[in-house]
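Priority: medium. Attachment 1 of 2:
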């Protein structure tokens, strides 16, 4: 999500601490600053160190500088895809 918000920056050490508790492999959403606003990365946390984290999103792996993070949280697994219903038999 990109947009204006009064969110304040989370210290990198705090972002690291929060993500460490969740652990690599956890499904997370991370809101971070970009030029002109904020954006979110939703996916599995694949790498984490004191300066950067990497999130495997649906489209790509996103490397995020922890100094740009404003919010983090763990999220549940994605819903399982629904199976397609077959069209009713037109009978003959």
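Attachment 2 of 2:
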């Amino acid at each position: 999500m990109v947009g204006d918000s009064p969110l304040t920056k989370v210290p990198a050490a705090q972002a690291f601490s929060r993500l460490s508790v969740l652990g690599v492999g956890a499904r997370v959403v991370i809101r971070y600053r970009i030029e002109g606003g904020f954006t979110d990365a939703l996916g599995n946390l694949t790498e984490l160190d004191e300066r950067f984290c990497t999130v495997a999103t649906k489209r790509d792996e996103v490397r995020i500088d922890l100094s740009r993070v404003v919010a983090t949280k763990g999220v549940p697994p994605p819903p399982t895809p629904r199976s397609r219903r077959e069209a009713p038999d037109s009978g003959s």
